[in-house]
Amino acid sequence: MMDRLLELLNDDARTDARDLAVMLGTTEEEVKRKIAMYEEQGVIRGYKPLLDYEKIDTQYVEAVIEIRVTPKKDFGFEEIAQKISGYHEVDSVYLMSGGYDLHVQVVGKTFKDVALFVSHRLAPLDGVVSTATHFVLSRYKDRGVIISGLPEDDRGNVSL
Amino acid sequence: MDLEKMLSSRAVELKPSGIRRFFDIANEMEGVISLGVGEPDFKTPYSVRRAGIENLQIGKTGYSANAGLLELRKAICRYLERKFSLSYDPKKEILVTVGGSEAIDLAIRAFLNPGDEVLIPEPCFVCYDPIVRLTDGVPVALPTCAEDHFRLTPEKLERAITPKTKMLILPYPNNPTGGVMRREHLEAIAEVIRRHDLIVLSDEIYAELTYNGKHVSIAELPDMKERTIVINGFSKTFAMTGWRLGYAAGPAPAIKQMTKIHQYAIMCAPTTSQYAAIEALDHCEENICQMREEYNSRRRYIVDAFNRIGLPTFEPEGAFYIFPCIKSTGLLSEDFCEQLLYSKRVAVVPGDAFGKSGEGYIRVSYSYSVKHITEAVRRIDAFLQELKEKQS
After folding, report:
1. Residue B262 is part of which domain span?
2. Contact A15/B at CB under 8 A
3. What is the arithmetic mean of pLDDT over A2-25?
C-alpha cells in the first residue's frame, strides 16, 4: 500500500510538515526525513501548481499527439521517446498499449504553433510511421482535481 | 375547528428540538464556512450508484419482501460475520429498514410497554428520547462526561437501574462526542446488563468509523446476542445518507415483531437502495478503508488545531465529530454558536442539542476537507481572540 504521506502530498503538496506530522501521528522531523528520502530516491520528482489556463491571460494551446513508431532493434521505443522528450514544447511522453505507441502532449501558443511543431519536428523523426493530432478544447478535471463546474456542498450548514 | 385541540397530545407534548431557531438561522445564512453537518462529504462509491441505476434500468421497481431482499439480508449476515464476528440467520434475524432511524423506532416499539424505563447515555443523537416517549416509555438520561471520554461506566449504569428499567440504548461510536466503547468497557457494563436482565439497543451506525483499533459489538460478548438488537446502516459507512437504508440484527422473536410493525408502517425499504446496498457490502471494502483513512487524518489534524486555539478537546476515536469544551469562554453553548455564526460565519452545533450534559461543549464535524477545516479554525481562533479582548 502507498505510504499515507505520499497520498497526503498528492492531495496537496504544500501542506506543511507540521500539519502532515499531526495528520500522520508522527513527528515533524520524521516527515521531513521521509520527504527528503523520497526526493533523493526520485519517488517525488517535483512539485508544480495545477494551473487553470482559462483563467490566465496568456495564449495556451495543448494537444495530444498519437504517434505510431517502428521500434528500433536493440533500443525498442527508448531512443525515440527520449528524443521526443527533449523538446521543450513537449509536456509529457507515454508509451501506450493499444492502437498507437507514443502519447505525446504538446503545448504551444497557437494551434498553428503546435501543428507546425508536429509536422516539422515529430513527423520527420526516424521511425515515426504516423501522427494524429488532437487539440484539447476544454478541461473538466486535471490530475484528480475538478477544474470546471466545481461541485457545491449541498449538505446545508447544520444537521444533527 | 380548533385544530390544535384535535392533535395528539403526545405529539404536541414532544419537546421541539431546542436549537431549532439556531438551525433555521444557520441554514439560511449565506457564505457560511460550516463544520456543522452530520453526514459524510464523500459521495456514494461509484459502483454502488451504478448498481442502483442498473437495477432501475432493467425494471426492478417493485416491492421487495417485507424484511428486505433475501440476497441483501444474506450479504448483511456475511458482512456482520466478517467484520464483527456476529452470526445471524438471514431468514429470521435480519430486518432491512428505512435508515438506521427506522430500525431504532421499531426496536423501541417492539419492546416497550407503557411505563417501561429506557436508559439513554447522553450526550447522544436526538431521536431516542422522543421515540421512547411516543411509545409511552420513560426515557432516563445517563449523563456521561469528558473525564470518562464520554463512555458509559458500569457504576453509572448500575445506579440508574430500577425495577422498571427494560432497555439500554448504547450509541457508540457516539454522535456527537466521538466516544467509543472498547471491548473492556463493554465487558464491564455487560456484567451489569446480564445481572439486571436488560435489553440492549446497540446503535452501531458509525462502527466502521473507529480509529486506533476495530469496533467491537456488544452482541459479540457471551450471552449478549440473545438480548441485543444491533442497529447499523449504509449512511455513514458507505456515504449513502440519501438512500435511506439501514438494518436491525437480533433474536428472531424480536425481529418478528419489528417486521410486523415495519410491514404495516412501511411495507419495505426502497428496492433500488437495497440492490445498491448489496454491491456496497460485497465490493466496497477498499472505499471504506480510504474514507476511514481520510477521516483519520482530519481527526488528528482538527483535534490538534482546537487544542492549540485553546478549546480543550479530548481525542475521540470514532465517528467524524470532535466535542470541544467551550466552558473557558464563559458562554453557554447556544450563545457561543450564535455569536460565532454572526461574527465569523462559522457554523457548529451547540452541545446541548444532544442532551443537557452537552452544555458547555460544541459539536464540530470533520466531514470536510482539510482546507475547509483550516479556514474554519482560523476564524474560530479570531473569534476567541476578540472574545477575550471584549471580556478583559
Report:
1. 46-283
2. yes
3. 95
Residues B290, B157 share a domain: no
Residue-level length of chain A: 160
Q: Which residues, given as ranges, of chain B have pLDDT below 50?
A: none
Q: Does A3 touch chain B (CB under 8 A)?
A: no
Distance set, CA B11 to CA B6, B110, B137 (Å): 11, 19, 14
Residue B300 has its nearest CB partner, among A15, A25, A153, at A25
**Beta-carbon separation of B32 and A157 below 8 A:** yes
Q: Is A12 on the interface with B (CB under 8 A)?
A: yes
Nearest to B215, CA basis, from B192, B232, B240: B232
pLDDT in tens, A120-154: 999 999 999 999 999 999 988 888 888 877 677 88
B90 and B124 both lie in a single domain? yes
> SS3 breakdown of chain B: % helix, strand, coil, rounded to 5?
50, 15, 35
Mutate: best of A8, A28, A160, partner B, most B CBs <10 A: A160
Domain boundary among B283, B316, B337: B283
Q: Do A22 and B41 touch (CB under 8 A)?
A: no
Cβ pair A12:B371 closer than 8 A: yes
Which three cell numbers, joined as nine digits, stand for B321? Answer: 465529530
pLDDT digits (tens, 9 = 90+) for B229-250: 999 999 999 999 999 999 999 9
Buried b (16+ CB within 10 A) or exposed e, B150-179: bbbbeebbeebbeeebbbbbbbbbbbbbbb
The CA distance from B148 to B180, in Å, is 11
What's the number of domains chain B is made of? 2
Give B-chain residues touching A8 at CB under 8 angstroms.
297
Give chain A positions within 8 Å (CB) of B175: 160
We report the CATH number of the domain holding residue B136 as: 3.40.640.10
Measure CB to CB from residue A23 to each of B34, B301, B349 and give the nearest one. B301
